[in-house]
Amino acid sequence: RENEIELQHGIFIIKRTLVPMIRVQHVDTHQGPILRKYKLATVTVSTAATVHEIPALDLEEAEELRFFISNLARVAVDDV
Q: Suppose 22 and one of 26, 50, 52, 76 were both cysteines; which one would form an S-S bond, judging by CB atoms 3.0 to 4.6 Å apart?
C-alpha cells in the first residue's frame, strides 16, 4: 500500500504487522551464499524501533520492492 507496509508470517500462529511509510528510515537487500546460489535475496525495512525482514524473494523482485518502498518512504517524509 502507499501509506504502509503490511507484513504477515507464520503457519500456526499468524502475526501481521503494519509499518507506516513515514516510519521507514531505510531499506536494504542482502544475500548470503545460499540465497545467492538460488538467486534469492532478503529485503530489510528499518525503522527507529526495529528491523522487519521479507526473506527469500527472487533477486529481481527484491530489488524492485526495495526501490518501490524507498520511493514511497521518501514521498511520505516529504509530506511531513
A: 76
